[in-house]
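Cross-check.
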Amino acid sequence: CVYIGKLLQFELEDDDAEWEDDQPSSSSPPKAAAVSDASSESDAPAVEAKQGLNVDAIVAKIGATDARKEALELVKDAGSLEALFLEMDYNGNGGLSLAEIDKVVEEKGWDISKPALMRAYKKTTLKDGDGDAWVEKKEFVAMIQNMFLFQSMWDLFDDIDTEDDRRINVDEFKAGMTKLGSILSDEEAQAEFNKIDTNGGGQVLFKEFCVYIGKLLQFELEGDDAEWEDDKASSKSSAPPANAVKG
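Predicted model, tokenized:
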């Protein structure tokens, strides 16, 4: 678990870690109450289901766990991860631009759409990473996982977008949710749609959809006003431009 944790960039507890309340204490009774609170919180999806939205089906369709498995299968071990990074690092400057990543994705024939790749790149650099415009080695596992995760979101978005105009209206949204087992009245569908269409334009773009799904999966995207810290001069400025891929 420690080994896999390093690949996925999270840490386990230390070997000498101990619970603070191993001995009897005055705080132990509230712990029983806390379990009750947690149980009631775990019932939250049932409340949403009563409203007609099948949240479990949406989450299952996205398959965040499957995305993580695909990422691990791709990198397999530290050696293959290193080799893949070096293959993408076309000019050897230690940081991957979006164009460099896109080049290898296309060469390998991976089923990653341009919109999914763009969203993965922005989340990795602006939210998961250190804020500069390059995917570095320490951020690479996150980038690989994000690619598969956002591709799952794109697949669902594209299924709902029956007019194929890369945007979803409320009728498409209701029909798509019906396919996922949600029973929504017109009013309920509009109310849920409005949660996604925060600017009230009547159309949902892919990023807005990703923000909505992110809330269901309990993760956040970069803010609308997020900018890379080194958009100007950088030691990695010789890399292909980050905006070379559009999606």
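The longest helix spans residues 137-160. The chain has twelve helices and no strands. Passed to J.P. for a second look.
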